[in-house]
Amino acid sequence: MDKTKLLTDLYNFNCFKFGDFKLKSGIQSPFYINLRNLINQPEYLKNVCKFISPELDNISNNFEYYIAGLPYAGLPYANTLSLEKNIPQLIIRKEQKKHGLGNIIDGVKEEHLIKDCIVNIVLIEDIMVTGGSILDGINKLKQSSINFNILKIISIVDREQGGCEKLKNLGYNVVSIFKITDIFDILESNKNLMLNKEIFTKSRNFVLEQQNQHVLLNRNIVKLEDRKQLANNSIFNKIIDIMLIKKSNLCVALDFDNTSKILETIEKIGQYVVIFKLHIDIIEDFSNEFIDKLLSLKKQYNFLIFEDSKFSDIGNIFRQQFQGGIYKIKKWADLITIHLISGSNMLEVFSYNMKETQGVLLVSQMSSEDNLIDKKYTQKNIEIAEKYKKQVCGFISQEKLYNNSFLYFRPGIGIENKKDCYNQVYSNPHEAIQQGIDIIIVGRSITQSSNIVEETIRYRSIGWNSYLLKVN
Question: What superfamily would CATH give domain 224-471?
Answer without folding.
Answer: Aldolase class I (3.20.20.70)
